[in-house]
Amino acid sequence: MIKKGLYERYIPDALLTETSKGCLFSGHDAILKRDVLLYTWQRKEIKSYIHAPSILQILDSGETNEEQYVVLEHVRGVTLTQAVSDRPLTLKEALAMAIEMVKITRALLEEYSRLIEISTDNFWITEQGELKAINSWDTDSAGESLLSSLFTAMHRMMFGPPTLELPVAHMIEEMSLSQTIDPFFIRKSLTSIWKREKKSGPGQSAVQLARTLEDLTALYTYIKKAKVQTQVGFDSLDERAREEAEVPLSRSTGPTNKRKTGGRQVRRLAIVGVLIIACIAGIVTLKNDSVESAKSQQPVSQTGRLQAANGQTAASIVPDVTGMTLDQAKQQLDKQNIRYSYYLQSSLRSKGTVFKQDPPAGSPIKRTEELSLWVSE
After folding, report:
1. pLDDT value, residue 259
2. Which listed residue, 65, 167, 215, 247, has the most CB atoms within 10 A of its CB?
3. pLDDT tens for residues 225-256?
4. Segments in the chain forming alpha helices (H)
5. Which residues make Cβ contacts (< 8 Å) with residue 86, sequence separation at least 6?
6. By the 8 A CB rule, do 369 and 339 touch?
7. Last residue in a domain, options 276, 291, 306
8. 352, 324 Cβ separation under 8 angstroms
9. Which residues fall within 8 angstroms of residue 35, CB to CB, at 6 or more apart?
10. For position 36, which CATH number holds?
11. Do residue 234 and residue 306 come from a single domain?
12. 187 lies in which domain range?
């Protein structure tokens, strides 16, 4: 077992995760006085290291009498396992993470013929919500259980580490039933993706990953649109209820007007009943989505519109609004008359938090140009 001070330069501080392939520690570089990650394992093997934007960069490697180790860059963040232990994901969020995991795995396979392990322990998520692979030097065994590993990771993101090993069919069932919108269709979709693993032959991992990426993306889009439609339906019912409530009652006491008034009251009660049922049935749906997720918003301050219309194109300096709530970011940008639009996207940041902006802070931006914001939904 690794001990503090075992290496003269790289000193481990805390164990982050331990798997059959090795141990990941947070540590520091005693010479350069910087934080690093240390990955150690017992076996003495020759490893082939690669460098890619989608993995944590390898800074150094070495060995002792008992262990080998790799020094990785320390990007502020946590392992995916740690992230979901604090807040389990919804199916839509787990699908978004799975899509990113498949993209990274596919890119490394195509460019470096390297098939990495798909698990929550082997991915690091940064504070900006970017996913990076940790162990890129160990290859998975021919990818025979590639999709099973993916579904295991998705299930763990939603329900935490299992107390016993579950069959994939059972995991798919639990993930499907967690979704209030058409769980039968979701079960069928996930099952068809998983069954492809049994039909794939040796050396077909690239094709398998490409088709899986398409299917997961389609399912994610379906769930997101279905939630938006549910929200729109709820809002339209609510609007009708408000309109009915605002209609003044006639002063006439004739029997015809009484029947009309009574009919309005019955309709109001029926609408309220539908609203209650819709609220109960769609409470999970409405928790993380809104109508705004169907499109990006482009709010522009009135001052910004007037200046743009008058042809004033003097540049401003983009402020740093990442980490702010959307309302705080709006206030900051309105003060500087900077036009902006924002996009709702699933991330592990708190709902309503700006986690990315383009152009970055400190960049010049003209009055006629627009700052793009990505907001956690």
Report:
1. 38
2. 215
3. 876 555 444 444 445 444 444 444 333 334 44
4. 80-86, 91-112, 146-159, 168-177, 183-199, 205-246, 255-281, 283-288, 302-309, 326-335
5. none
6. yes
7. 291
8. no
9. 26, 27, 28, 29, 74
10. 3.30.200.20
11. no
12. 79-224
Q: 268 and 310 share a domain?
A: no
Q: Do 313 and 348 reside in the same domain of the chain?
A: yes
Q: Quote the tokens at residue 116.
A: 């990495």
φ/ψ (deg, to 5) at 59: -95, -30
Least confident window among 92-101, 235-244, 284-293: 284-293
Is the torsion defined by CA of 360, 362, 366, 368 positive or negative? positive
Boundary-marking domain end, from 209, 224, 239? 224
Number of domains in the chain: 4
Identify the bridge partners of residue 14 per DSSP, sorted by sequence position: 26
The amino acid present at 216, given as its one-letter code, is L
Query: Which residue's entry shows tokens 């900051």?
Result: 332
Q: Give the whole-angstrom CA distance, residue 77 versus residue 151.
A: 24
What does DSSP assign to residue 90? P
Question: Tokens standing for 307?
Answer: 């200046």
- What percent of the chain is predicted at pLDDT more than 90? 40
The reply to whether 355 falls in a domain is yes
Q: Model-level pTM greater than 0.70? A: no
23 lies in the same domain as 39: yes
Residue 215: its pLDDT value, please? 93
Q: Which residue has the tokens 């991915």?
A: 123
Q: Do 181 and 109 have their domain in common?
A: yes
